[in-house]
Design brief:
By secondary structure, the chain is of the alpha/beta class. Helices cover 53% and strands 10% of the residues. 42% of the residues are buried.
Length: 579
Amino acid sequence: MTELVVDLHRHASSLIHAALARIAPDLEAPIVQLERPKDASHGDLGMPCFPLAKPLRKNPAAVAQELVATLTELTQDDPCIDSVSAAGPFLNLRWNRTALAEAVVRGILESHAPYGPWEANGKSIVIDFSSPNIAKPFHLGHLRSTVIGAALRRLYLHTGHEVHGINHLGDWGAQFGKIMVAWYEWGDDEALASNPMRHLFDIYVRFQQEAKNDDSLTERAAQEFQKLEAGDAEARALWQRLRDVSLQAFAGPYSRLGVEFDAVTGESFYEDKMEAAIEKLSQAGITEVSEGALVVDLSKEKLPPCILRKSDGTTIYATRDLAALFYRRDTYHFDKALYVVGSEQKLHFRQLELVLERLGWPEAKNVVHVDFGMILFRNENTGKWEKGKTRAGNAIFLDEILDKAVAKIRATIDEKNPDLPNKDEVAEQIGVSAIIFNDLKNGRIKDIKFDEDEMLSTEGETGPYVQYAAARLASILRKSGAEVATDIDYSQLRDAEQVLLTMAEFGPVLQRAVDKNEPSILTGLMIKTAASIHSYLRDHHVLSAEPPTRAARLALVTAARRLLGVGLGILGVASPDEM
């Protein structure tokens, strides 16, 4: 190619827009939806012409035929296009195989977008994720918000956005009054020092159990939170102590999961901003007093009121979320604010959206609840899948789950590859990543059954399966002992079309994942890429091939290894060279 075209999908889109401009100059530029045809014999990339039928006043098949005629003329000298055709209402393109190989392999090796970081687009994104409650254990229930949010943060960063990932800790509110009472009743300094989160968990569960038969405990909890909000010195000191202990404990799981934040603030950060938020809403004339509480009435939408201040004068998390939104809008000037929070909070976020609409916020629709389903675990006594609940005393500590997965992988390594260097490090990478991958391979709105045996398998749609493909490629590169040649004959890769076509989907997949806030779209491509690599290597030798073919195949292997590393890295999955 005289000029390298890296993003073939964008190139195809540009060509189709140019053809449409010739056919209908006055037509408003449509969104071109390109995807691989289900029938590979039709082409490498296809577009349904149904959306164009009405504006062009022609049936979809006629539109496809007219586009074929125009594109054939436009692409006469295009080195990337091998053919243009129509299959009923679908327009199809087929790439020149040599151009396909060069665009994909060189694009990856030279880190061009979409394989490398995209050009900055000037869009600011705030992502609120993880957000555990202090003085409570980091348990399995926190996993989904944490890994989905971290993956979205990396997705948006890779695709050129300015990203602000925020850990909005649950370090305020009525629940903390319960923890304070539990500490006063049963707290132990030595137990807190030796195993802080286990001890805090135990006394919190005890509070829940004893409060069922002792209403005075709940009353005391409300009083303690009132003292905390009023600035009582003793209450503030205990709050700070338990917050510091919790943050130190949370650092372990975050490090193991490879999760980073741009800000760790928590609800308490907005304590001095809540009155201003309430005043803003009151001045807008959208609040009223109902049964002693200050609320925004949402009865017209057939929803409960959004409570801003309870009758006892204390605030709730809706107040703090609104204060946080106002602060983030002024500080980050965001184009979109994402809240990675479970589906059970749909009502809360719908209420926030309506309050913002009442306030006249044009950005209200850009405050997005990125919801997700629950993690279910098998109850060993009943055999049923159910959710773990902290207050019921059956929460599953995340560190314990990670340790168990890593131990299983370590035992497998000892059995199958006892001479592997850095066995502990590799076991950690595979075991932890298997849990992350298992979460992200499922559509986020689905509930997940936490099946350790399945997720740790090297067969099927699992993290270890994809990691093994990457390690297999790394092994070939180690054995080759050669640098990637600079004078590759890309025509030698005409037999690698399935690997190349799959890798060429990387850019569109990232865009769809961002548009839908859905990391599983990228996870699915990583599975497809690994499968195509395993299939190609089964039928094509690399190291024993003739020199021109060997050099080209080594370039393909290098590119595939790098792409798996980039894709898995965005997901938060490690990519060891040996396993």
